[in-house]
Amino acid sequence: MDVISIRDMEKKDIEGILDSAEAIHAGRKKPGISGKVLATLFFEASTRTKLSFQSAALRSGMEFIDFLPETSSLKKGESFEDTVKTVEGYADALVIRHPREGSARLAADILGKPVINGGDGGNQHPTQTLIDLYSIRKNKGRIKGLNVTLFGDLKHARTMRSLAYALGMFEAKVTLVSPQGLEMDQSYVKELEERFNLQVSVKTEPEFSEADVLYVCRIQQERFADPLEAKRVTERFMIRKADLKGAKDDLVILHPLPKINEIENSIDSMKQAKYFEQAHNGVPVRQAVLEYALSR
Amino acid sequence: MQVDKIEMGTVIDHIKAGKAAKVMKLLEIGENYPHRVAILINVPSKMMKTKDIVKIEGKAVSEEGANIIALVSPGASINLIRNSKIEKKFTVALPKEVNGLGHCANPNCITAEGAKTRFKMEGDGRYRCHFCERRSNAEELV
């Protein structure tokens, strides 16, 4: 079974993966995938996705082989298609990250082995979304009915689009807070409202009093033509302790990481800050994903 | 302006003015096509003010094949001619799927590197790229 896009998955599949991850995390379950080989093919940089997939494989009794683009035949001009077709013969499943959108889908179309999308450009990062859902459910006990604020660059961040879709599926309420020009695509928001009857509110200022979950992502300064405007916006969209004064005591703050300067460092030690825990959740969730991909 | 009737082939009428060349491209009729082809541009029309017409000798365009014309000119009508008479007439409709034609409007889509394009129409009439999931209007594909 391929894991390419959150759009391909049904709610019951996602719930199955989250339940499985919970059992693995609690030590109640060992995924039945030992002895298999995972290939990790990251055509662009990664810390958390790559290492947590490799850790997930090892903790599940699998082996992994790692493709390094800088020392591979890509340097000789080998195509993406030929590369993945070759690696398919060396492994039982492939995790692929590639800067081109649709690359993981293309690999899945031409390969017989399971392909897991580790991020395809600005399009999808389904296992990050599963980690986000897992982290919300683990901390709040549910997803349905929660007020989730998505904060930052909602135009370019792939994690935000996938998460908004999944939150619609799980009947959460979503508040979108972004600088002007970095709003989530209106037609996408409309699609979510129509498909899931998702309640969406839009704000332009940091205000979190109603939020149960605050999901932050980086404002990418390189997206602005004017460097002064970029500096002004990133400063205004930096979360400081003072911004959280009116927030709920049991607010959960998440971030896909890496964070640069969008969250004041002093927030890291607050009990609401759950983003490092979220990154660590990547291992049991990806163990569950590997089992899902390899056992169907 | 006088153009001969064709005995066997296809007449594509009610093409949006200025879109005849794109229609020819979609039907892959180029310089190596062995029969006569007439292209009429900016023909006066009561309904459309001006329209284009393409007459293709020796080629019967299938209904499925003709529907791709709707990407550039919805409302174009197809007349299949046999023995100098109209054998079948229909109006093109947007195809449910578009495969191997056009291009994804997303410049970062993997199809920009040569992968064969695949689009599926959604409920609102827009097309979603099979690969990058970007949604586009019909005219953006061609």
Q: How would you sum up this structure in a few lines?
A:
With 296 residues, chain A is α/β, with parallel strands linked by helices. In chain A, 38% of the residues lie in helices and 15% in strands. Classes of the chains: A alpha/beta (296), B mainly beta (142).
Tell me what you see in this structure:
The complex is a heterodimer of chains A (296) and B (142). Chain A has 296 residues and is of the alpha/beta class. Chain A has 10 helices and 9 strands. The radius of gyration of chain A is 19 Å and the shape is globular. The model of chain A has no long low-confidence stretch (mean pLDDT 94). In chain B, the strands form 2 sheets. A 5-stranded antiparallel beta sheet of chain B has the order 2-3-1-4-5, with helices on one face. In chain B, strands 6-7-8-9 form a 4-stranded antiparallel beta sheet, with no helix packed on it. The two termini of chain B are 30 Å apart. The relative contact order of chain B is 0.18. The interface between A and B is medium-sized, with 18 and 16 residues.
Keywords:
heterodimer, A: 296 residues, 5-stranded parallel beta sheet, 4-stranded parallel beta sheet, 10 helices, B: 142 residues, mainly beta, 4-stranded antiparallel beta sheet, elongated
